[in-house]
Structures are given as structure tokens and as C-alpha cells.
Amino acid sequence: MTKQISTLLVANRGEIACRVMRTARAMGIRTVAVYSDADAEAPHVQMADDAVRIGPAPVNESYLQIETIIAAAKETGADAIHPGYGFLSENAAFSQACAAADIIFVGPPEQAIDVMGDKARSKRAMIAAGVPCVPGYQDDDQSDATLIAEAKTIGVPLMVKAAAGGGGRGMRLVHDQADVANAIKLARSEAENAFGNGELILEKAIIKPRHVELQVFADSHGNTIHLGERDCSVQRRHQKVIEEAPCPVMTPELRVEMGAAAVEAARAVDYRGAGTVEFLLDPSGEFYFLEMNTRLQVEHPVTEEITGLDLVALQLKVAQGDSLGLAQEDVTLTGHAMEVRLYAEDPADDFLPSTGHVDLWHPSDIARVDDGIATGGEVSPFYDSMVAKIITHGATREDARRKMVRALAETALFGPKTNRDFLIDALGKPDFCSGQATTAFIAENYGEGGVDLGAHDFGTFAVAAALQHKLRQQAAHDLALNVNPEMLDWSTTGSLHSVMQYEGLAAACGGDGLIHLHVEAPERYRVEAGENRAQVELLELGDTTARLRVDGHGTTAIYHSHHRDLHVALPTRSVSVTDQTGLSAMEDAGGGGTVVAPMHGLLLEILVESGATVSKGDKLAVLEAMKMQHEILAEIDGVVETIAASAGNQIAADDLILEITPNAEEEEA
């Protein structure tokens, strides 16, 4: 029995809400957005035909409010709800609430969500269905003593994982049995905060596997098929960064075998709609069930690119009760596709999330870009740090990779820090280029913690200086009367000379941090700093882009200027500079003894008391931001003198948490 969808409420935000609405609109379906106070002016709200406020910014008061969202659907006449991914997309109670309200839930049945949303139950179900699984513990006894004992039986390396949820939250890799108890505590706490469920499972860690997942689809007429695989091996903290389809090492025989296992997994829980069965593929070709995501995946566009199918359209079709209209033999895979996730985060600072005003969002026009941000908007601290996805397709894997590098070169997000430069660098690593990247790729190529991409080339600063000179000159000309623009950069007294002072220049290129810019001809400059020299010619200047020639070589730049600040994105590196000429030196605001919040978030715990003696590396506090928990460590030895913050409260970036008086030897040093 079919029930046509006329109005679709999208119970999500950001890029996935926009993505779903685009397909719904193309199908002639009216769309309804829901939004929190933080998203009142967000792109998904602007795109929808109607929109309903559902609460304050925190997710527990807005996007996770089932009754409020159901009420919004009734108020706007929505006969279906698409949950996107995250939030309520894998919440069986939400599916049940939709059914009770006679609203179509665009997703699988409640039972499938319930089983597959629990890693322990799903693993038991897959073992019963004969799907290969990783050895581990997934039983009901959740006492710390039992988990610690089972961890000893399984051995290290070991994964401690939240039974509910996903996205890398509530997950810890343990290499030493002595660390098991702390890993259980952290994983349980993170799982309870993220998913409201602290149940854990333990699994033997498969070292250096590939993360390969199969896209499955099932309808209510007994048809279940797969749409090929995706390789999602390039991950950071168990969150995917680069995805591609097909998998570089897949063989036709292995695809048939994994595809059959994925279809069997879906059938075992009477699945319906779009789902993803995830496997770990070890170097020997053995594969093991990891989990099933009972929703549309973030990386679904790469499957769309190689199959030519619109997965959201298929979801809506199946949700209405229609047949898939596809048999397994109808699915063909053409070419190769890649997707990168653009995160608002600082790779140099251990990938800490970055928030704030979007000064400029400049996406490439040669790739598919699924985004949910706009110039003038905000990247909020309340939600996930992924702000956009960039997708390319080519006849071969190398075609798709080269196109992705070019697309990223033509992309810039100024305001919050991003992983754009890191992505460009990662796409050029030899093991990625050769298709040999495993889940160990980032650790092997960049180590643990922050990523150091090396010092900026002096040419980057020279471009910034030339642009800043020209933009100031234009601003002055706009305020002047009767000055012929052709006279700019000309002087009767000889060569014009400007001096700028950039913080970070001395560390990157040597010298005293001063840049000397000499005008040799209109829009042609000689730029010097210490022993560094560069010739910069400005060929064309647009509102946000510029074409230049640096030391005889052409390049392009995306830029945004505001007062003394200038953001510049060149094809491989980005830089933000502030001209400090004439400004007094900034005093150090804190030093190692002043412990401040590295980002906006919820201060979950303060682990020390006033008067406590601490050593460098001791855990001081736990901060939750963008759904992840971050441990704040002492940078020095000393005594805790002041505790300025309180656990359980939201704090802003750079807010004081506590102060440590350093030991005498620290002060002398």
C-alpha cells in the first residue's frame, strides 16, 4: 500500500537538511525546516518552504525533542519526516512516535533501528545470521569488574566502544591493560552524554585494516540489494575524513562476498530503506562486521556519483511504499568518486573544533559541494564541526583525486579555522595516491596530536603584503576626490615603499617580522623580509579572488580583508595575517599557569581542588564540545591556587578555568 508524500519535514540542520530538501523540491514535495535559536538564519531555514522553531541551541532542548518535532509536523501538515543523519535518525522511539502520529518516518522499522543501534545486540544478531564478526565481548553484564576481566581475556590492542551511537564518540583504543579501567570510564561517560546510554562492548582491535562499507537498500516488497562499497579508511579519532568509491583494493569476487554479507545483515533484521553495513577489511582479505548504520550516511554522495542514483529519492520512494524498481543486476558502478569532509577545526592544535563568524565561504564550482553554511553566518559550538562536503567524480581514481585537489585549491572558509590545507596535503601523500591508505594513515603520516604542515613559504607572506597594500590603496582612493586611478602606485619622488609587520613571519621565514614592499611599477612589487625576496605582480583583483604572478609563476588567491586582518588561501596553503605596524606588542595573557578553555563547550568535570599539587601532564578538567570530550592537561608542575569555573556550566573559548602557581624551579627556568 502506497501513501504519497506531499509535505516533508526535515528533522535536521546544516548540509544534510539542505541536501534532502533539494531532492524533495525536485520531486515536487513541499519542505519544512525545524531550527533552534542558534539556527534561526541558517541556510536550511532559508531554503525550506516553511520553518518552525523548536527550542534553544543545545540539542537536548531542540533537535532531540521528539514531541516538539512531531508537533511541528502536525502544525505544518507534514505527512513525512526525514531525520537526516545524527540527532534522531537512529532513535527507535522517534520512529515509533512518527507511526503513532500517522506520519511516515523516512527510515527503517523501529525493530531494525533498535537492534542495529545497539552494538552489542547487533553483533549477537550478526553472529546468529552467520555474518563474520570481530572477536570480543557484547553481553549484558556491564560491571567494570566484568569488562576489565573480559578485556584481559581478549587481550590488547583492544577497542572499548559505546554500544549505542557512533561517529567515534564513546570509543577508546587501548594498548596497555593498565589503561583499560580509565578507557571504560571515559568511554562510558562520553556515551552517556552523547547517547544517553553508557553500555559498552569490547572488541579485539584489528590493526591497520581498511574501513569498507556496503550501501544497502530494501523495500517493503521483499527486495534487498547493495549499491557497491565505499572505502572510508582515512579517519581521525574514528571519524571519517576522506571517503571514496569504489574501494581501491576491491576485487569482483570480494565485492560479491561482502555484498552478500551486507544483504544478509539487512535481511536478518527485516530492514527497509537506506542502510550501511560497515566492515573491517584486513590485509589478508578477511572482513569482519563492524556495525550497521540505519540511516543515510554522510558519505552517500560518492555512491550516488558512481551509480547515477539519487539515494534520497530512493529513500522517499521506499518510504511511500513503492518498490525499489531495481534488481541487483541493474546496479552498475562507473568511474571513481571521492568526498572530503571540511571541518571547522584547527589541525595544528590537535584538531580542536573552531567556531565563530563566517567571514567568507567560497566553495569551488568544479565539484559537487554539499554545504550548510553561508558568508555572514556562524559556526556554532553546539553542533558537529563538519560544515561542508566536497565531492568529485572521474573516469579513474587518479582523475577524481586530481580534481579534488583542484577543487580544494579553489575553496576557502575564512573565520573559523578549517582542515582545508590538511586535506590538500593528505591527498598528496604517496600511500594515499597509490590507494594504500588504511585506518592508520593519519597516525603514520602525521603522528599523534596536532599536524605540522611546515613553515609557510615566504611567497605566501609576499602575496599577503601585496594584496594588503593594494586593498588599502583602493580604500584610500575611494575616500579621495579627483584622483585618477591610473596614477595609483606612481610617485614623482621615486619608488613607493610600505612597511608591514606580521606576527609569525619571523618564525616562518626569519628576519624581524617586518615586510618591506617596494613598488616597481603599477601593481608590480618587490617584497623583502630579512634575507627573503619575492617579486609579486598583481594581474587581476576581484572582490574575493586575485590572480598573481609570484617570481614568474602564476597563482590564484582567495582573500578576505577586514581592517588590519587579511585571510589568504593559496592553492596549497592558507594564512591569516594581522599588520601590527604601529601597534604595541601584545602581552602574554596567561602562560602555562593560566588554564583557559581551548574552545566553547560544556565543562563536565574539574578533577583537582584548590591547593592540590599537580605535575605536567596531569588531567585537570574534562570539556565537552561538538559531541566530543577533551581532557585538559597541566602544562607545568605547581599548585592549584584558583578555580574560577564550575563543572556543569557552558564556558566560552579562553574563559579562565583555573590558575596554577608554578614550582620554584619552573619560575627560575
UniProtKB/TrEMBL annotation:
One short Pfam name that applies is: Biotin_carb_C
Q: State the source organism's domain of life.
A: Bacteria
Q: Which residues form the Lipoyl-binding domain?
A: 586-661
- Which InterPro entries does this one have? ATP-grasp, BC-like_N, Biotin_BS, Biotin_carboxylase_complex, Biotin_carboxylation_dom, Biotin_COase_C, Biotin_lipoyl, CPAse_ATP-bd
Alphabetized PROSITE patterns for the sequence:
ATP_GRASP, BC, BIOTIN, BIOTINYL_LIPOYL, CPSASE_1, CPSASE_2
- Stretches assigned to the Biotin carboxylation domain: 4-447
Calcium as a keyword of this entry, yes or no, is: no
Read off the SMART domains from this record: Biotin_carb_C
Q: Name one GO molecular function term.
A: metal ion binding
Q: What does this protein need as cofactor?
A: biotin
Keyword annotations from UniProtKB, A to Z: ATP-binding, Biotin, Ligase, Nucleotide-binding, Transit peptide
The residues covered by the ATP-grasp domain are 123-320
Its recorded name reads Geranyl-CoA carboxylase alpha subunit
